[in-house]
Design a protein that fits this description.
InterPro entries: AL/BT2_dom
CATH architecture: Sandwich
Number of strands: 13
CATH superfamily: Exo-inulinase, domain 1
Number of domains: 1
Number of helices: 2
Structural class: mainly beta
Strand content: 25-35%
Protein name: DUF1080 domain-containing protein
Radius of gyration: 17 Å
CATH topology: Jelly Rolls
Largest sheet: 8 strands, antiparallel
Length: 244
């Protein structure tokens, strides 16, 4: 990771609305009760433009990000010709949320989805604050040999409970749910990660990871959604989010 759809719904995994905070974390209790929310889905990608997005630390998206025919594409060939890419981030911030999207990665490719990303000029890159849902060609990229670096993992923190990624080049369905400190990852309908954020175990994992020397990492309760530019072609579609 380190570098600077057909929509799928799990209605039984949605949660009660809760207001976010921009302050860094305090210990939270795990939520046991699951309640359906009536909040509306928000379309983050309209299929033909980059409205609502910008490159991290910039006031507009990089030219290497293309939107056409319902697909958002990071075109690495354009970067090699001098076009700017960069990690793409939402203009809006989100605290508790349910995100769903489709993605596919290029052969030997690497990318990711980060959340609770702070883009205020204080941090150099999204991964300095935002935890990452890893996207990878597990068989072709060297990171595929590293536990916690495969598709569906919470990058460098928790490995997937099951292998659920489709072969490279095929579309995958991803969901990320954050509710009152409870984090869940899904890949193609399979729950791959479940954790409680901001408790003692969470802090221990961060302290033992490559993020140990990043004081802002995984400490914020709200922030932007980021799509990573890791230098490889990657495609996204059907990007939707619901505030919880």
């Amino acid at each position: 990771m380190i570098k600077p759809t057909l929509a799928f719904v799990c209605p039984f995994l949605l949660f009660v609305a809760c207001g976010p905070s921009t302050q860094q974390h305090e210990n939270v209790e795990e939520i046991d009760e699951i309640v359906v929310t009536e909040e509306e889905w928000i379309t983050l990608f309209d299929g033909n433009s980059l409205t609502g997005w910008t490159s991290y630390g910039k006031d507009q998206p990089g030219e290497a990000w293309e939107a056409k025919d319902g697909v958002l594409f990071l075109n690495i060939a354009k970067k090699k010709e001098g076009a700017m890419g960069g990690d793409l981030v939402t203009k809006e911030t989100f605290g508790d949320f349910h995100l769903k999207l489709d993605w596919r990665i290029s052969e030997n490719g690497n990318s990711g989805i980060m959340f609770h990303v702070v883009d205020n000029g204080e941090f150099k890159a999204p991964y300095h604050t935002g935890p990452e849902y890893q996207l990878l060609d597990n068989d072709g990229h060297p990171d595929g040999k590293i536990t916690t670096h495969r598709s569906g993992d919470l990058y460098d923190l928790i490995e997937s409970s099951k292998e659920a990624a489709k072969p490279v080049g095929e579309w995958n369905q991803t969901e990320i749910i954050v509710q009152n400190g409870k984090l869940q990852f899904f890949l193609n309908g399979v729950k791959t990660v479940e954790a409680t954020m901001w408790d003692e175990e969470w802090d221990r994992m961060v302290a033992e990871s490559k993020f140990r020397d990043m004081p802002g990492f995984a400490g914020y309760r709200e922030g932007k959604i980021a799509l990573q530019d890791h230098g490889d072609n990657v495609w996204f579609r059907n990007i939707q989010i619901k505030r919880l």
